[in-house]
From TrEMBL:
Keywords carried by this UniProt record: Cell cycle, Cytoplasm, mRNA processing, mRNA splicing, Nucleus
GO cellular component, one term: nucleus
Organism of provenance: Ixodes ricinus
InterPro entries in the cross-refs: RNA_Proc_DNA_Dmg_Regulator, SDE2-like_dom
Protein's UniProt name: Putative signal transducer
Ranges annotated as biased composition (Basic and acidic residues): 123-147
GO BP annotations, alphabetical order: mRNA processing; RNA splicing
Biased composition (Acidic residues): 196-205
Origin: domain of life: Eukaryota
Localization of this protein: Cytoplasm; Nucleus
Region (Disordered) residue spans: 120-147, 159-247
Length: 247
């Protein structure tokens, strides 16, 4: 059986012949190791990118690739990378990234926005320089125009009529005075108002003033009587007293 194997050292494609119709992977590894001069356990065979097991059977015309094994490291490195990747937050700032040419995406987006703005400004300038178009829709209704012309006259007539009617309307307000309704009695005792208390205070002041004036008049009368008494005695003393007659 014939197989095509890519060499490990020269990277050339080798055509390998086997007596067995379906050789195993171990047989191919031993043949390549003998030709290349390397240990067989250092070699691995790949078919369509998939690693072949040592006891796997091969088919005629297969294309194989011979690669060397790499020394292994500490286990669990992949799980550590996955744990760290879960802790890292996904970035949302794409502006700081670079494209394949090394330019910042921020600069590229800014340049794109600037080009759009310049294009809009040019379009706006052309729109401003363009002359205004004539109105396309026109209204040709004779009845509407006639009603529109008569509308100011009708408004003026309505206002004049309203003013004349308002001036002829009789004035109201000369009727009899309205009677004052008595307050509603709720069964509560009447409380003295401030007006009643003020009237009582004025009456007390007036009565007190009259009593004081009477007392002052009586006092002046007593004083005149007392003054007359001593004066009479004094007048009697001026007259000669009669001596008692002898017995």
């Amino acid at each position: 059986m014939q197989l095509f194997v890519q060499s490990l050292l020269s990277r050339r494609t080798l055509c390998v012949h086997f007596d067995d119709s379906f050789p195993q992977t171990v047989d191919v590894q031993a043949t390549i190791a003998e030709r290349e001069g390397v240990p067989g356990h250092w070699l691995q065979l790949l078919r369509h990118g998939r690693r072949l097991e040592p006891g796997e059977r091969l088919r005629p015309g297969d294309w194989l690739r011979c690669v060397s094994t790499l020394p292994g490291g500490k286990g669990g490195f992949g799980s550590m990378l996955r744990a760290i990747g879960a802790q890292i937050e996904k970035t949302t700032n794409r502006e700081a990234c670079r494209d394949l040419s090394g330019r910042r995406l921020r600069d590229i987006n800014h340049e794109t926005r600037l080009k759009r703005w310049v294009a809009r400004q040019a379009e706006a300038q052309r729109e401003r320089r363009r002359p205004p178009e004539a109105p396309r829709h026109t209204l040709d209704d004779p009845e509407f125009q006639r009603q529109r012309d008569l509308l100011p006259d009708r408004v003026q007539e309505a206002v004049s009529h309203g003013l004349t009617v308002g001036s002829k309307r009789p004035k109201t307000g000369g009727g009899p005075p309205k009677k004052r309704r008595a307050p509603l009695w709720l069964g509560a005792p009447e409380m003295p108002s401030s007006e009643d208390s003020g009237e009582e205070e004025e009456e007390e002041k007036e009565s007190g003033g009259e009593g004081e004036s009477q007392e002052q008049g009586e006092g002046t009368g007593k004083r005149t009587d007392e003054s007359d008494g001593p004066a009479g005695e004094a007048g009697g003393s001026d007259q000669p007293r009669k001596s008692p007659s002898p017995p």
